[in-house]
Design a protein that fits this description.
Elements (H helix, E strand, L loop, with lengths): L1 E8 L12 H5 L2 E4 L9 H12 L3 E9 L8 H18 L4 E5 L12 H13 L5 E5 L7 H6 L2 E4 L8 H16 L5 E8 L15 H11 L6 E7 L12 E8 L2 H17 L11 H9 L5 E5 L15 H7 L7 E6 L1 H9 L5 E6 L11 E11 L2 E3 L9 E3 L3 E6 L2 E6 L9 H5 L9 E4 L6 H4 L3 E6 L35 E3 L1
Parallel strand pairs: 1-3, 1-4, 4-5, 5-6, 10-18, 10-19, 11-17, 11-18
Antiparallel strand pairs: 2-3, 7-9, 7-20, 8-9, 12-13, 13-16, 14-15, 16-17
Length: about 500
């Protein structure tokens, strides 16, 4: 059987972040045609491995993946889309198509790129050729996605560790459909809940973790082929956003609807328990100074590059520098101009400059710093574990500047935070520092869960806050929790 595979995979933020262009993809993963076959990691690697196991003839189209940001530029999206579509047209006929996507991207002029791609592929291959797409569990599942796919299969873990196995599951399901072993019927039930990711982990006994286990346990029932639970990406500004469950059955739509509704209703009932409590940076620092030995983690999730923020906030840095008792703190800041200034000087030079908010001025103002350049670095590193295990990261020209009791890692490019790869790349072990600023809502657990004496979720300005209740939504369908706390009657959205 001839199976085509094409992937355009990133996450976008409509409240901030830098635009995603073709250079953004070039810094991470951008493969065309036959070169796609060399991919071993991630969801594409998992899909390829399974297709080879089944003896399928693989038709590689394109694989493009990058760190989240703002919108995808029109030029970039049109280029990637054209490459995927043109290569698919040239490859016809095919027996099936697998599309590893994210589900929460936005492009200039295209509010639903994943739905757009699925619709275009469906028009090319026709109604009888199966299409399976894989999605992040933070996807904003749209009617176009459900209508044009035979199956949507989501990642199961957060922090994300199962991208490769998700690719395997998606490919296996596609092969079964192509071989007429199953007939997929799919239903998605959404409830109006768009909470942040702080309490959306799938480890331990949290509300979302338990609900994920309940959702996946349904796959043991007769006739159930796949189940997915979506904690939707909350930093989009789209109508009909919501979280919930998607169930795929073997030719039993009533069962798919019933089970999806049961899970989603439970999600709704527990919505208040997945809203995070936050604290000001000043309060968190004071608390940390009084704590015992160990790292005090300051989680500035509102500036999460993995959620599309620019990574250039200095809100927590400002608070640290304002407290004279702080003598050992680490803070990352994306600022290409300041990084360049550092590289124009040399190690040991003094520097006096403005830092921060050069990329996204909507969420704060620059901070004047005076310090000494301690480290200069080209910015290259390699991810260890997670969705990009073995993938090369690129911070661009970077520097470590010491000012008072704070070491600032100043980078040219935003990069996804998985563990502590960026700090290790410049020779710093963050576990040994008193205060560490982590700009992600969940992955900090990979490094600091066992060594942190305190973990504080901060209330700072930015496009990726722990709670979305104060974000300036314009297109959100009302009412929706937590923007609206008091909702008297649940109204679900059913997609089939």
């Amino acid at each position: 059987m001839r199976i085509a595979i094409g992937s355009i995979l990133t996450e976008c933020n409509q409240f901030g972040g830098s635009p995603i262009n073709l250079d953004s993809f070039c810094r991470y993963d951008l493969y065309y045609g036959e070169s796609v076959l060399s991919v071993e990691a991630g969801v594409v690697g998992g899909a390829l491995e399974e297709l080879r196991r089944t003896g399928s003839e693989i038709i590689p189209l394109i694989y493009a993946s990058t760190c989240p940001g703002g919108y995808i530029t029109k030029e970039c999206y049109n280029h990637l889309r054209k490459e995927l579509i043109t290569r698919l047209l040239d490859a016809l006929p095919v027996d099936g198509v697998i599309l590893p996507l994210h589900g929460a991207s936005v492009a200039e002029g295209t509010q639903d790129p994943e739905g757009d791609l699925l619709e275009a592929v469906r028009q090319i291959v026709g109604s009888e050729t199966p299409i399976v797409a894989t999605l992040d569990l933070h996807a904003h599942v749209t009617p176009a996605m459900v209508k044009n796919a035979d199956a949507l299969v989501a990642w199961e873990t957060y922090p994300h560790r199962d991208s490769k196995s998700t690719g395997t599951r998606g490919a296996k399901l596609l092969v079964d459909v192509v071989n007429r072993n199953i007939l997929t019927t799919m239903a998605m039930v959404k409830v109006p809940v768009i909470t942040g990711g702080i309490l959306g982990g799938t480890n331990g006994d949290g509300v979302f973790a338990n609900l994920m286990r309940q959702t996946k346990a349904l796959e043991n029932r007769s006739g159930v082929l796949s189940t997915s639970l979506f904690l939707t990406h909350p930093y989009l500004d789209q109508p009909c956003m919501g979280s919930g469950a998607l169930v795929i059955t073997d030719n039993n739509m009533n069962l798919a609807k019933k089970l999806a509704n049961e899970i989603s209703t439970t999600y709704w009932e527990q919505r208040h328990q997945i809203e995070a409590d936050v604290i000001s940076p000043e309060e968190a620092i004071e608390s940390g100074l009084k704590s015992g030995p160990g790292t005090v983690l300051l989680v500035e999730t509102a500036d999460c590059s993995g959620g599309g923020a620019a990574g250039d906030s200095v809100a927590t840095l400002r608070a640290l520098l304002s407290n004279d008792a702080v003598n050992d703190a680490l803070v990352p800041v994306v600022d290409p101009e300041t990084a360049k200034i550092c590289h124009d000087l040399q190690i040991g030079s003094n520097i006096s400059c403005m830092l921060g908010h050069s990329l996204d001025t909507r969420w704060g103002s620059p901070l004047h710093i005076e310090g000494k350049i301690k480290i200069l670095f080209d910015g290259s590193f390699v991810y260890e574990g997670g969705i990009w295990d073995g993938v090369k990261g690129d911070m661009g020209p970077s520097a470590v500047v010491q000012t008072k009791g704070v070491r600032i890692l100043i980078t040219s490019h935003a990069t996804y935070d998985w563990a502590d790869e960026q700090w290790k790349a410049v020779g710093i072990n963050p576990r040994l520092s008193r205060f560490v600023v982590a700009k992600n809502p969940m992955n900090f657990n990979n490094v600091y869960a066992e060594c942190a004496s305190q973990i504080h979720i901060l209330d700072t300005p930015g496009p990726t806050p722990a709670s979305v209740k104060n974000l300036p939504f314009k297109n959100l369908t009302h009412p929706c929790f937590p923007v609206h706390k008091d909702i008297s009657q649940l109204k679900t959205t059913i997609l089939t």
